[in-house]
Description:
Distance between the termini: 70 Å
Helix content: under 10%
Strand content: over 45%
Low-confidence stretches: 10-24, 111-121
Amino acid sequence: MNAQRIILSLVFICKLSSQESTAQIKRTIKGSVKDSINQGLPGSYVRVITGKDTLTVITDKEGDFFLSNITTQSSGLLVRSIGYKPHEATVTFLEKQKQVDLGNIILKTEYNMLDEVVIKGKITPIRVMKDTIEYNTDAFMIREGDYVEDLLKQFPGMVVKDDGKVTSMGKELTRLRVNGKDFFTSNVAEFIKKLPSSIFSHVQVIDDYGDEANFTGIKVGQPRKILNLVTKPGRDKGTFANVSASAATSNSYGLNGNANVWKERKQMSGGGSFNNTSNDAQITNSANGAASFSDNIGKNLNLRSGYNMGNGTYGGTNFNNIQSANSLGTINSVNEDKFNSGNGNHNLNLGLNSEETGKFFAGNLDAGLSNYNSENTSSSLQTGVIRQDLFTSSTSKQNSPNVNINMSLGLGGKDKKGRASLNFSGRAGGSKGHQDILTDIDYYDKDTNEKVKDSLLNRLVETRNGERGINAGFNYSKTLGNPKDTIQKSIEFSYSFSMSSNNNELETRVKDINGKISFIDSLSNVYTSTFINQNIRGGYRYNSSKINYGIGFTLQPSILMGSYEGRTDKINQKTFNSSPSGNFSYVISKTQSVNMNYNGSSNAPRFDQLQPVPDTRNLQNVIIGNPELKTSFNHSANVSYSLFGITSGKALQIGVNASTTQNEVVSNIILIKDTLNSLKQETRYVNVNGNYNINSNYTIGLPFDNRKYMVSIGGNVGLNNSVIFTDNVKNSNKGLNFFQNIGVNMELKSLSGSAGASYSYSENNYTIANFKPQNLESWNFNMNLVFKIRKSFNTSVDVSKNFTSGYTSGTNNPLLINASVFKSFFKNNRASVNLRAYDLLNQGNNLFRAVSGNMIIENRSKQITRYFMATFSMNIENFVK
C-alpha cells in the first residue's frame, strides 16, 4: 500500500513538472480585423481560450490586435464586431513556435433574417466615416428586377444622368469598385445598369487620394470620388450577359451584346456594339468591341488586362450665334458648320498589383493608336464692328499614337514606424496632321453695306507634334510614438520631379488658282519646349478616431525652356512658387462630419499660347502666341459638411469650393486692319492676376413613411471673375449663377416616380463699354412616373416644361413628353420588349449658352428629337443567392 502511494506520488510529481515546463513556453498571437473592403475595424472584441484561461483584447484604431501569455499549443479564437458575423477558428502552434501571425481576418456583414423578411427596425440608413459616406441598402426600396442605377437614384445628394454618369454633391464618381477592388473596366455608367441591387449590402461614396496615398497615409491634393459596392456575404460572384437589338423611326438601328463572368477576383468580359443612324439631321455609323480579364496569379498578385477598339463615321450640322465684345463695339457672328468625320482607335491596357502586409506594388501599361479624318464646310456671317462673310471648306487627317507606363512601390508595414513609396511614370505620344483649307471672304462697305470685294485663299497646313514626359517621386512618413497608439502623429516628406518635352512643327503652303504651291515661311515654325517642375513638401499629420488633419508647406521650382528654328531668341524662364497645403476631417458623430482641403499646383502654358508665329486657320481670328508667358500657379480649396439622421435618413450636405490662379494665361483680343483696309480679330496671350471662382451648393433630403417618399431641396450659387483683354486694355467679367430645385421622389412596390421644379439665373457683367448681354433666366417643371402593373409589365411617362428668357437666337420653352411600355417574357423574365416614344410634341431644340472670355456663345445642333424606338433584349443572370 505504501509502495503504491509512493509510485502514484512520483507519477503526479512528474506530470506536474511536465505541465510547469510546458507552461513556461509563452506564446503570442497577432492579427488585424478588417471588413470586406479591407478597412480596419477598431473596437472589435478578440477572445482566446487557452487551457482554463480566457484572454481578451480590443483592436486598436487600425483594427490590429496582439495577445500574449498563451500557454497551450492549441487555442480557440473568437472575433466579434457590431454589425458583423462572428469569426471562430482554432489556432495551433508548431513545435517550439512562439508566435502566430493570423494576418487579415475578414468579417462579413451580419443580417438578421426571419422567414425571408429583413428586420429593419433600427437600421441606420446612412453612416459617416472619415473619407466615406456609406448607405445601407436595407433602408431603401429594392424591387424585383431593380439594378444599382435604380438604387442610387434614391440616395440624397446623388444624381444619375441619362447617360449613366453619377454625381454626388455635384462631383462625378469616376471609378467603380466592388468590395474595395477595381471591378472589370471600373466604368461606373456601364455596370450600374447590369448589377442587381439585391446582391449588395452597402454602397459607399469615397474621397479617394489614390492607392499610394492609402498606403503611406500622405493625402495631398484634391481627391476624386469613387463608388464602392459592398456585396452581401458569399454573393461576390455571378455571370451576366445581355443581347439587344433596337430600331427607330429616325432611320436608326443598333445591335449590342456583352458577356461577363465574375468569381471574386477572377473577372472576364467581352462585348461589342454596332449602331447606325442616317437621316436629314445626322449620320452615325459606329462599331466597337472590348475584352478584359482579371485574376490573381499568385497569393497576393493580381493581373488585369483589357483591349478595346472602335471606329465610326459621324455627320451633322451645328449652329451658333456669337457676340464678341471689343473697344469699338460688338461683333455679331451667325455660324453654320456642316461636318462629316471618321475616327478609329485601338487601346491596350495591362496592369499588375500586389497587396501584402507591409508591401505595395502596382504597375500599368497603356498603349493606344487613334486616327481621325474630317470634311467640313462652314459659313460665318459677321455684322456690327466688322461686316464680313467667311465661307470655308476643309479636309483634315490626323494620326496619334501614344504609350504610358506607371509604376509604384511601397515598403513598411503597420508594425513599423516608417512607410515609404516610390513612383515612376513615363509617356510618349505624338500626332501628325494635314489640312486642306479653302476660304472665301466677302468684304462690305461699312457705310453702304454693299459688297466691295471678295478674296479666295487655298492653304495647305501640316502639323507634326511629339510629346515625351517622365514623372518620378518619393514619399515617406514616420510615426511619432508607438504605431499602435490610439492617437497617431507622424511627419511626412514628399519629393516629385516631372519633365515634359514637346516638338512641334507647323508648315503652311498656299495654292494659287493655277495649282502652283508656295511655301510661306512667315506662317511656318519649328518649336521645341521643355518644362521641368519639382515639388518638395514637408508636413505633419494627426490621426485619431474622430479627427484627422495634415498640414505642410510646399516648394515648387520650375523651369520653362524653348527655342524656335531660324530665330535667335530663346525662352528660359525660372519660376519659384511656395504655398501651404492641408486637409482636415472631423467625424463629429456617426452621422455628421466636416472635411476641408487646400492645394496649390504649377501649370505651364500650352504650345499654341507660346509660339510667336501666326496660326491663320481661321482668317477672322488669327492666333499668335507669346513666348514671354510665365508659368501659372493655381490655388484651390473646398469645405464640406454632412449631417444624416440615424434612423430617419434625413440628410443635409453643404459644400463650398474656391479657386484662383496667379499669372493665369488669358486672351487679348485685338482688332487690326488687314490688307483690304478692313478689320479682323487677332488673339494674343498675356499673364494676369485676379481670376477667381467660388461655388457653394447644398442638398436636403427629407424622407417620409419609412423612406417611401423623399423630398429633396437643393441648389447652388456661383460667383466668378474673369479678367480679359480687348485691344490691350484690361477688362473683366463678373458672373453670377444661381440654381434652386425642389422635388419629391416616390418608391412603392407598384409605382415609382418623381416630380420637381427648378429655377436658374445667370448674369455676366462686363466692364467693356456698351456690352451688356442679356441675363438668362429659366423655370423648369418635370415629372416622371413608372407604373409596375405586373412583375413582367410596366409603363412610364415623363414630362418636362421650360420657360426661358434671355436667348438672342430664339426661345427655349419646349414641352417634352416621352412615354414607354415594357413587357418581359420567359422564365425569370429573361427576354423583354420596350416600346418608347420620344418628344411626342416635337418641340426639342437642344439650345444652350456658354461664356468664354469676351464671347457669349449660343449653340444648337440639328437633330430629330421626335421618334419612336423598339428594343428587344435578352438578359442572362446567374448570381449567387
